[in-house]
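User: Fold this; tokens only.

Assistant: Input:
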Amino acid sequence: MPGWAHTGQKSRHTGPTVGVSRLIPSDAPMRKLNASGNTEERWLSSCEPGSPTSRALLDAIIVGGGPAGLSAALVLGRCLRHVLVCDAGHPRNEPARIFNGFLSRDGSTPAEFLQICRDQLRRYETIEFRKVKVVDVERGDCRFTAILETGERVTGRMLLLATGLVDELPRIENFRQFYGSTVHSCPYCDGWECRGQPIAVIGCNQESLDLAIELLLWSKDLVLCTNGPLKVERKAVETFKRLCIRIIDTPIALLEGAGDKLEGIRFTDSSFLPRSAVFFSPGQYQRSPLAEQLGCEFCEENNCIQCGEDTATNVPGLYAAGNASRGVQLVIAAAAEGMQSAFAINNALLEADAERGALKNSPECARPNLNT
């Protein structure tokens, strides 16, 4: 499955976040035309009195409305933090027919899952969701100002980037036709559905060899199609051959099948390999340039945003969660990391508020009465 799921490791670093939002309890989101002429989905008008974005300063701005961003919004909203979630509307797993491995949501479609999440957030007046792109962010003194594609400017004390990644697909004819249905990137998401079937792994690097070995758990009828010369050390090839996995290095002409059901691989020499499924290890890049523009550090090995165990980046006040910042790209892991980010953001806000005395109810509470 192409979304929110793939395996790997990443290092982490440290830093804080920004955000605020409010939802209006209604059966359907309000819609309006934004400056680009596109229909914009939102739960509460930002100019309505009492909405989070009607405030001069939000507690946090969350860029990205996937499982990480929505999970963070839920926790922060329940902490009475005013949060705005901005989502451009193109999740990484958008092509996927279903996703798996999420307890209670196994076999859900990505769209169904996100709709359930958004619906559950509607009852929180502290959370606002807007289907709008953040085109730029300005970093100020203990605050971040997000510039939306509508031209609006929204300011928050913390910023959370949950903007995700984009998979780079092989340049093979008809590849996209089957992607998300019978062409996949993650065996943990789709291996079960392909168990015992004839599978091909497409790729020529070490990650592709590792993926092919991993897939032996689900099927022994496995072929590695390198689409040209292998680009790995000889020792790795020897290990691979000991596992009796066949290697075909003939260039691939196209994938063949009917609808989204793969039937096999056609090579440039006209030979045909019948296969029911293809797996590949995609290259990836950050969906949004905001992290780089704000000065975030990145992990060299996988281009993830480098952050600490609390999801804080090297930029004070800026946090990152989900696929954009981790190697283990699973929906459930992204949701968990969003919650982790919310804890860290709320704690940072608490510390700042306590230091400046903003948590007291009234001036009389500023200092204890030592005469009683």
